[in-house]
């Protein structure tokens, strides 16, 4: 895959590029306006479920449209725990990862019997079910009214701590969470299990012939992708401080798809770039509300024609050209 | 050596039908451990289905499959590969195209290096050392099949013949007991055929790996095999010494009659 060689080390220019971009992101608040920062916060909200979609679609080869369903479950979980128990953010966040993952496991058992389009349909159905529960379990979710006055993230071990409230603080919180999520994705896809997942994407029967427990790895990819989505929901709900069933609107699922496919599916950097470019573009186009979706659609179409493997592909090949062949030696990892 | 007399793979009345079509019509066969057995027959004679039954890709309608003395009937393919080291190749799906040659081999070796599901998720120093050991072994095997120079090439960018060599090398990664090859020489040039033949002979001789080979190239196969089994319409038509089998009038007729 472009962007990552499993089991191989990153070439020096790749590392240097990564460090440079990370430094820019860390220093960005020094020069950016509050509006620009909030746009990037929205990018990061979408990046977290997109990382999950990238794992299941890009590395395991299954298209799941349930990401925003799990995002919503994570958001509700995080909000409810914080509202009822006054828990610190880290605990809300962990619960927001765990609950969607635990919900995904039983849903996966029937879904994983299906392949291709039937599997996709099944994941769409999950979102309908989750949305319906969120609307009708009024005692818990307050139905269509949704939850409001969700506490802002409290950074502390248990009962006290610092409350995140400025845009800059939210930005750094998002950066930290996204860094953790990217590190988790890298760890998963570089592990032996990740190698089996890629094998499943390439050819499931061939993957089984080399001893891969294909069902288990498909399950793992589905459950882990739900956890990434839940992480996004947690960050989101403590940022906007409200959540309602509108979070399950298909347009958000579309955005996650655009971020992953437009950025570069099956690469680490692709969805990161996709989240910045496509979410920022969508925000920037708010200056012309009537034309916004027309222009967005045209840009998206053009980008798909120009870069069918995602925006990251030309950057990766440029880097590879700079690295020279044989950059990877025999004793790398 | 009891290996001489023991069967690596035994079929007991194996039948497989797809609806009204009988692909394998009750086959009894013992493949002696440490031997190379060729399996020929016209198209549609049930060779590939027999492989599918042996390796868990399809479940036989009736009968039993044994690897050594273990009844593996109804096991999943991945379990048969992991626990019995009974491996197979496919005619078309040959290698993982997006992975490099080296990664293809490491993947194939993971079944021995990481036995449990949980172990495969680990990235600790122990897992790292195991992967490094697989990487070293992959290097040796690539050397052995003459693909050392393509170690970091994407398998999808290799020629079909090179992919078949890579596939063969990847089957050697997990220390196999029995290897079933489905048309290993189809669609590749004579030089590479010779290279694969040499490797099969060497692996069989040095490591005692049992081979069952389905192949249409009868000349190469009868030269390579210790025994030749001919299938026709899902049943065994002839079985024995390769020179005798290819002269058997029934075999000649089955082939000419197509």
Task: Please tell me about this protein's structure.
The complex is a heterodimer of chains A (333) and B (258). Chain A contains 14 helices and two strands, in the order ααααααββαααααααα. Chain A is mainly alpha-helical and 333 residues long. Chain A has a domain at 29-248. Chain A is globular. Mean pLDDT of chain A is 89; it is low at 1-8 and 325-333. Chain B has 258 residues and is of the alpha/beta class. Chain B is 40% helix and 24% strand. Chain B contains nine helices and ten strands. In chain B, β4 (62-67) and β5 (70-71) form a beta hairpin. The longest helix of chain B has 20 residues, at 125-144. The chains are: A mainly alpha (333), B alpha/beta (258). The interface between A and B is large, with 34 and 42 residues.
Describe the structure concisely.
The complex is a heterodimer of chains A (333) and B (258). By secondary structure, chain A is mostly helical.
Reconstruct the topology from this structure.
The complex is a heterodimer of chains A (333) and B (258).
Chain A: H1 12-27, H2 34-59, H3 67-85, H4 89-111, H5 116-136, H6 138-141, E1 154-155, E2 162-163, H7 167-190, H8 192-202, H9 204-209, H10 214-240, H11 250-263, H12 269-284, H13 292-306, H14 312-323
Antiparallel strand pairs in A: 1-2
Helix pairs in contact in A: 2-7, 2-10, 2-11, 2-12, 3-4, 3-5, 3-10, 4-10, 7-8, 7-10, 8-10, 11-12
Chain B: E1 7-18, E2 21-32, E3 36-40, H1 47-55, E4 62-67, E5 70-71, H2 77-84, E6 86-88, H3 101-113, H4 125-144, H5 160-172, E7 178-182, H6 190-207, E8 210-214, H7 218-224, E9 227-232, E10 235-240, H8 242-247, H9 249-257
Parallel strand pairs in B: 3-8, 3-9, 6-7, 7-8
Antiparallel strand pairs in B: 1-2, 1-4, 4-5, 9-10
Helix pairs in contact in B: 3-4, 3-5, 4-5, 5-6
């Amino acid at each position: 895959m472009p962007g990552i060689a499993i089991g191989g080390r990153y070439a020096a220019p790749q590392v240097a590029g990564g460090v440079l971009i990370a430094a820019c992101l860390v220093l960005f608040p020094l020069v950016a306006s509050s509006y620009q920062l909030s746009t990037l916060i929205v990018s990061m909200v979408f990046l977290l479920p997109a990382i999950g979609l990238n794992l299941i679609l890009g590395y395991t080869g299954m298209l799941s449209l349930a990401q925003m369903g799990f995002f919503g479950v994570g958001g509700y979980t995080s909000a409810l725990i914080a509202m009822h128990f006054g828990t610190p953010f880290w605990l809300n966040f962990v619960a927001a990862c765990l609950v969607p993952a635990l919900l995904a496991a039983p849903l996966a058992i029937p879904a994983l019997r299906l392949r291709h389009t039937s599997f996709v349909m099944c994941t769409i159905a999950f979102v309908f079910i989750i949305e319906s529960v969120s609307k009708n379990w009024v005692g818990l979710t307050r139905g269509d009214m949704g939850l409001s006055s969700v506490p802002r993230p409290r950074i502390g071990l248990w009962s006290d701590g610092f409350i995140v409230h400025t845009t800059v603080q939210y930005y750094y919180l998002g950066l930290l969470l996204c860094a953790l999520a990217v590190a988790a994705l890298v760890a998963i896809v570089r592990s032996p299990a990740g190698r089996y997942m890629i094998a499943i994407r390439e050819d499931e029967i061939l993957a089984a012939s080399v001893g891969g427990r294909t069902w288990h790895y498909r399950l793992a990819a589905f459950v882990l992708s739900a956890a990434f989505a839940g992480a996004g929901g947690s960050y989101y709900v403590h940022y906007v401080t409200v959540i309602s069933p509108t979070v399950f609107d298909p347009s958000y699922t579309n955005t996650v798809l655009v971020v992953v496919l437009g950025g570069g599916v099956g690469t680490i950097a692709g969805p990161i770039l996709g989240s910045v470019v496509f979410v920022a573009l969508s925000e920037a186009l708010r200056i012309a509300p009537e034309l916004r979706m027309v222009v967005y659609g045209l840009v998206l179409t053009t980008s798909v024609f120009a870069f069918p493997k995602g925006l990251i592909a030309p950057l990766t090949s440029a880097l590879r050209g700079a690295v020279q062949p044989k950059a990877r030696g025999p004793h790398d990892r | 050596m009891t290996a001489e007399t023991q069967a690596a793979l035994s079929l007991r009345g194996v039948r497989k039908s797809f609806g009204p079509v009988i692909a394998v019509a009750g086959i009894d066969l013992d493949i002696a451990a440490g031997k190379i057995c060729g399996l020929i027959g016209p198209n549609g004679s049930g060779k590939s289905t027999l492989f599918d039954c042996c390796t868990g890709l399809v479940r036989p309608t009736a009968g039993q499959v044994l690897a050594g003395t273990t009844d593996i009937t109804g096991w999943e393919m991945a379990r048969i590969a992991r626990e019995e080291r009974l491996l197979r190749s496919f005619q078309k799906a040959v290698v993982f195209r997006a992975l490099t040659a080296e990664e293809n081999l490491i993947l194939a070796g993971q079944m021995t290096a990481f036995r449990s599901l949980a172990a495969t998720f680990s990235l600790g120093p122990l897992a790292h050392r195991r992967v490094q050991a697989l990487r070293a072994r992959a290097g040796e095997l690539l050397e052995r099949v003459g693909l050392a120079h393509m170690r970091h090439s994407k398998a999808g960018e290799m020629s079909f013949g090179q992919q078949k060599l890579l596939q063969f090398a990847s089957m050697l990664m997990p220390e196999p007991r029995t290897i079933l090859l489905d048309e290993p020489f189809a669609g590749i040039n004579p030089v590479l055929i010779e290279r694969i033949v040499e490797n099969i002979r060497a692996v069989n001789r040095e490591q005692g790996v049992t081979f069952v080979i389905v192949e249409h190239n009868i000349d190469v196969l009868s030269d390579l095999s210790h025994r030749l089994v001919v299938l026709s319409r899902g049943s065994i038509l002839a079985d024995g010494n390769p020179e005798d089998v290819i002269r058997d009038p029934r075999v000649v007729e089955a082939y000419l009659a197509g």
